[in-house]
Amino acid sequence: EEELSRSSHSNPGKNLVNGIKTNPASSSPKSSLPVPIGPPVYVDLAYIPNHCSGKNTDPEFFKRVRASYYVVSGNDAANGEPSRAVLDALLEGKSQWGENLQVTLIPTHDTEVTREWYQQTHEKQQELNIMVLASSSTVVMQDESFPACKIEF
């Protein structure tokens, strides 16, 4: 116990995944110790962790982190970013809220995964009061151009 106490003081982030203590014998956060039950956290804006990869985000994230705006920044299909499972987890998590608060999903890239998800779940999104922002804006700076999404509060 003393050794555990000393190691946590010398490296406070050790064995933490998204701020939650994990089992040091396990390399996967999915097999970590159970997270204590607590009240949900309400925030204005939340970035979906790990570029919307299914490695760290599941329905429990959306049940606990309740945001008015979620940013989806994934643009790497080879690594499953964004993950269809995570987008579906948003629907599942939001359906458990018990209140119909407006949620806006802000994808920072136009991907095949987000387009298909949007089209296939549009009715469920409307039912859950989820709006998906589509942006075709482009920022041009010197010799570089890139897509942009404007967020207003």
TrEMBL record:
PANTHER family: MICROTUBULE-ASSOCIATED PROTEIN, MICROTUBULE-ASSOCIATED PROTEIN 1A. One of its GO terms (biological process) is dendrite development. InterPro entries: MAP1, RibonucZ/Hydroxyglut_hydro. The gene is Map1a_0. GO terms for cellular component: cytosol; dendrite; microtubule; microtubule associated complex; neuronal cell body; synapse. It comes from Smutsornis africanus. Residues 1-34 are annotated as: Disordered. One of its GO terms (molecular function) is microtubule binding. This is MAP1A protein. Residues 20-31 have a biased composition (Polar residues).
